[in-house]
Write a structure and sequence with these properties.
- The structure is a single chain.
- With about 290 residues, the protein is an alpha+beta fold.
- The protein has three domains: about 45 residues, 2-Layer Sandwich (Uridine Diphospho-n-acetylenolpyruvylglucosamine Reductase, domain 2); about 110 residues, Uridine Diphospho-n-acetylenolpyruvylglucosamine Reductase, domain 3; about 110 residues, Enolase-like, domain 1.
- Helices cover about 35% and strands about 25% of the residues.
- The chain is built from eleven helices and 14 strands.
- The strands form four sheets. A five-stranded antiparallel β-sheet has the order 4-5-10-6-7. The chain has a four-stranded antiparallel β-sheet with strand order 11-12-13-14, with helices on both faces.
- Helix 10 runs antiparallel to helix 11.
- The N and C termini lie far apart (about 50 Å).
């Protein structure tokens, strides 16, 4: 591993200026669980690490009923799920955060870092899609926002341009009678990367017997994590039943565009997309009903 420069700015302006100055030869450093390994193994060739943990906006973790959740890009996973009040509102995100490596990794890794690494198999992204997260991005030209399902553009690539960094994630307050869940399938515990990951959220009517709306996110079945809009359309306005859930699960399987690799085949991934979507929807419904 070659010698690298290190900077620790305390404002967004300083950070974006450094990233712009190095023009692709610098990367933000939060937990470092991905970027340090990539540089050490020669997968990324950088000149500067920009430590963003002292920038207040990247460390925010606040919730307001009207404004929703503001989750800073550098907030560690464990800090999120150890916040009892926030964790109780976003159980689907807790499901995902608790699967990001082991306990030691979760004390460093963040939702923002997992998103910026932009792996198709990232655990947090399908859950963020299910929760309607919006990415807040800062750069030399100011701030902009991008829906999380549009953030990744290819394996390991995303919409961040010259000098830009992810500041935070804005996530709406869950509606009444709503629930969410995330599941993944892995071949064995020693290979801790999803063959398929599925995150689902639902909103039910007051009686709990009809879907008002639903969202399904899939990981590891396409070049980028997917929002399966067809599954949400199947659920909307339909009675809560096995038949409707099966139809939404089938829509998820049909949306999958996987490859075969050492972790799984195309056929297996398509099958798992439906299976995991069904299971996450069943659990999301149970949570929406308070079960």
């Amino acid at each position: 591993m070659k010698a690298l420069g290190y900077a620790c700015p305390e404002t967004l302006e300083e950070a974006t200026a450094l990233l712009a100055e190095y023009d692709g030869r610098a990367r933000p450093l939060a937990g470092g669980t991905d970027i340090i390994v990539q540089v050490r193994e020669g997968h990324r060739d950088l000149d500067l690490m920009v430590d963003v943990k002292r920038i207040p906006q990247l460390r925010q973790l606040t919730h307001d009923a009207d404004q929703g959740l503001l989750l800073g890009a550098a907030v560690p996973c464990c800090e999120f799920y150890e916040h009892a009040e926030i964790a109780s509102l976003y159980p689907g995100l807790v499901d995902a955060a608790e699967l990001v490596g082991g306990t030691a990794i979760q004390s460093r890794a963040s939702f923002g870092g997992n998103l910026c690494n932009s792996s198709p198999a990232a655990d947090t992204i399908p859950a963020l899609i299910a929760h309607q997260a919006v990415c807040v991005i800062a750069g030399p030209g100011g701030q902009r926002e991008v829906p999380v399902e549009s953030f990744c553009t290819a394996p390991g690539r995303n919409v961040l341009g010259r000098g830009e960094l992810l500041v935070s994630l804005r996530i709406p307050t869950p509606a009444p009678n709503s629930g969410a869940h995330y599941l993944r399938f892995i071949p064995r515990n020693e290979m801790d990367i999803a063959v398929v990951g599925a995150g689902s959220s639902v909103v039910l009517n007051d009686a709990g017997d009809t879907f008002v709306s639903g969202r399904v996110g899939l990981g590891a079945v396409a070049p980028t994590p997917l929002l399966v809009e067809e599954a949400g359309e199947v659920l909307s306005g339909k009675p809560v039943s096995d038949a409707v859930i099966d139809e939404a699960a089938a829509a998820a399987g049909n949306a999958a565009r996987p490859i075969s690799d050492m972790r799984g085949t195309i056929e297996q991934r398509i099958h798992l997309s439906g299976v995991l979507t069904r299971r996450t929807l069943v659990k999301a419904v149970a949570r929406a009903r308070g079960e």
